Amino acid sequence: MLGRTANALFWMFRYLERIENTARMIDAGMRMALTRDLVASEEEWRSVIAAAGLRDSYDARHATCTGLQAWNFMLRDKDNPVSVLAMFGQVRDNARQSRNAVTGELWEAVNDSWIQIKKLLARPVSEQRVGEALSMIRQAGTLAHGAIVGTMLRNEGFYFARAGTYIERADNVARILDIKYFLLLPSLTYVGSSLDTGQWDTILRSVSGDRAYRWLNAGQIDAKRIVEFLVLDTRFPRSLAFSHGALREHLAALARIHGTECKANELMREADTRLSQIGIDDVFDRGLHEFLVEFMETNTAIGLAIAEEYRFHA
Amino acid sequence: MSGQNEFFDEMHVPDGSIRNAYRDYHAWYSEKSAAFLKRKHRDAETAFRRTGITFNVYGESEAEERLIPFDMVPRIIDAGEWRRLSRGIEQRVRALNAFLHDLYHRQEIIRAGRVPQRLLRDNAAWLRNMVGFTPPGGIYTHIVGIDLVRTGPDEFYVLEDNARTPSGVSYMLENRETMMAMFPELFMHVPVEAVSNYPRRLAKSLAACAPPATRGKPVVAVLTPGMYNSAYFEHAFLADQMGAELVEGSDLRVINGRVAMRTTRGYQPIDVIYRRVDDEFLDPLSFNPDSVLGVPGIMDVYRAGGITIANAPGTGVADDKAIYSFMPEIVEFYTGEKPLLPNVETWRCADEDSCRYVLDNLAELVVKEVHGSGGYGMLIGPAASKSEIAEFRKKLEAHPENYIAQPTLSLSTCPIFTDKGLAPRHVDLRPFVLVSPDTIDITPGGLTRVAMKKGSLVVNSSQGGGTKDTWVLKD
Predict the structure, then answer these.
(1) Phi and psi, residue B403, nearest 5°
(2) Looking at CA atoms only, how far is residue B262 from chain A in angstroms?
(3) pTM to 2 decimal places
(4) Nearest neighbour of A311 by CB, restricted to B236, B246, B264
(5) In angstroms, rounded to a whole number, what is the distance separating the alpha carbons of residues B355 and B349?
(6) Which of B50, B51, B263 is opposite residue A1, by nearest beta carbon?
């Protein structure tokens, strides 16, 4: 397979993942804002923008932060290079670039979704339409995943795509946790007293983990347990441990196909070992922020090693 | 334009009966309800948009992808007609290839005075790098599209030879796929020659021209200028169907005397490259130095037998419109036979007498740029306004050598489906031909282009033309 095609598949699924997570964050923000007064709601939307890593570009554009402004910025603003609209354009471009490496079903899933999403986001998204928009966006991801798992040959293209999904998921979840946690810090000085359970609920919702968490913890909102759930629980498909476990498997499959291991496999093994040997108390002893920063750096390094080993660029 | 009946209608005889080729189809069609047909008509558009069969139009601000309109009424040719056409096409393609070989070697045809030297001298597509070099297998035009028009029951003319990079074959294939998906029962009743094996035959034909450096099974790749090119869909489609890699210039590099592509396992040599990049951009070392679409050094590798380029560089010299007017002589010179398919009468404005005739009759003629394509820069006299003609006259007087003129042909019509039922529209036909050292392979049918606007004679997709599935009936 061409290095450029491998790159296109990898990034196609990275963008799809980031799009899904963006939609989830908006969804969580809406839920939160609904239960707040106007001032608190503005704060909530600012924190959604921050969790998406868009604070600077957003502030350059808007002074206020209503829900309407926030989600339109995240979904379709021309000044936001990682808006859902811009990223979906990238997804489709990447799919076109790798047209002869993806199945007809996958191409049609992506192309169909693109046609609908482009239409949907052609004009500002009102309160009445945002719910429909978010569910359609999430559905696009689900369709693409269903198509790739159900129809694609298990050759290197498949593993590059899957690796893209998990490396992006690990990054996004770590980032959401880091930024949200940072914003919550003041309240953490009162650990054990009055936790803002609503905020923690938002974090869980941002990664679609609210139900699973409640189910496992009998509805108890507990900061440490939530972090443990999102970082270390290998049963939850969006936890850091799960994402890296899956990433490791897919990189191992690539090594098998190529008959040789590379630096990415080595980095992966080290990262995985670290993650499997620590407990949640170690994470807090070191500092969650420090832990997450290191995790994201390793994740980035793995991404670069993949691009280099498999000649993504000339 | 005057009434319809002066044009040859391929489905209806003036007395109201149905021509043989269309008899089975028409019987089927007549039984269908208007609601059924309308629904199918809508389904077709959705199907095309979903599969992403689009083309990009140059000069459109948004660089958006557009759909070529598809009409669901097939264009039908009977077996006997097709046999006659094939013979003529094969003869023409053989002559084109021999002509190219001659031009880049001894130039017998010029020595014999049948084609003037100036045609080469003034031809931008002529490549000095190709002189004295014979491409692997001796083939210049691996893939050819011959544009035909029909004017009567047995009257077909060649309108144009597309010898460099004929496009549109993906529409031929997808049109058939769509028709079979929409009307499976129709194909059970009417025996139609298949077109679906074109990609396999293309792959085989390309592999048969592998260069001397090939080791083992030839590695074939399709070279595209990239996804913003108007025909990108087709490039990707063909690569996919052939199981070949779809490469861009940035994927390629010359290594150890071979052209190699950057794969996830490192650089791997390519044996045959089906390029959809123009000569000018093929090799920045030999041609346009600013090109990023090609491969620096590919021409040296080519000349040393390290790669086959299809179609061969310099092939365009045979398909410009000034050469076209000499095709009857060319066919006769190389095959020793009279051309089976006639040319459209053509005045070369480079000749003073012809030019005067053209200037005097602009309102009746079609005038084309010698090097133009895609229906751009041409004048259709009968359809043009006085001021358009006056403007064109100035251009023609300034550079007569840039133009040829032809009579306005009475192109045949074939019905299209409209909200008000069937309505005749003008059509042309582009059959696709594959040339390898031992065979000339013509896919039955080809691409029918249809002017969707009533009375229009312009079938080019860039000018709003559409396409139809083309059927050749089995004997």
Answers:
(1) -130, 150
(2) 6
(3) 0.88
(4) B264
(5) 4
(6) B263
Give dist(CA A170, CA A242) in Å, integer.
Answer: 9
d(CA B21, CA B26): 9
ipTM: 0.85
Return the structure tokens found at B345: 């009468």
The tokens for B374 are 């895609």
* Residues A12, A87: Cα–Cα separation, whole Å: 9
Q: Are A2 and B263 an interchain contact pair (Cβ–Cβ within 8 Å)?
A: yes
H/E run at residue B148: strand B143-152
B270 min Cα distance to partner chain A (Å): 12
List chain B pLDDT tens, one digit each, 475 residues: 334 457 999 999 999 899 999 999 999 999 999 999 999 998 887 887 777 666 554 444 344 567 788 999 999 999 999 999 999 999 999 999 999 999 999 999 999 999 999 888 878 889 999 999 999 999 999 999 999 999 998 899 999 999 998 989 999 999 999 999 999 999 998 999 999 999 999 999 999 999 999 999 999 999 999 988 888 889 999 999 999 999 999 999 999 999 999 999 999 999 999 999 999 999 999 888 888 899 999 999 999 999 999 999 999 999 887 889 999 999 999 999 999 999 999 999 988 999 999 999 999 999 988 876 656 678 888 888 999 999 999 999 999 988 999 998 889 999 999 988 899 999 999 999 999 999 999 999 999 999 999 988 888 877 778 999 999 999 8
- Give me the count of residues in chain B: 475
Residues from chain B that touch A97, judged by Cβ atoms under 8 A, are 227
Nearest-Cα distance to chain A for B227, in Å, is 7
Cβ contact, residue pair B50, A2, below 8 Å: no
Kindly report the three-state secondary structure assignment for every residue of B368-412. EECCCCCCCCCEEHHHCCHHHHHHHHHHHHHCHHHEEEEECCCCC
Token pair 């089927």: residue: B28
Residue B244 identity: A
Min distance B328 CA to chain A CA atoms (Å): 41
B417's enclosing H/E stretch is: strand B413-418
Q: Where are the alpha helices (DSSP H) in A98-239?
A: 104-120, 127-151, 156-188, 197-206, 210-217, 223-232
Across the interface, whether the CB atoms of B264 and A93 are under 8 A apart is answered no
The residue of B55, B251, B255, B264 whose CB has the most chain A CBs within 10 angstroms, and thus the best one to mutate to test that interface, is B264
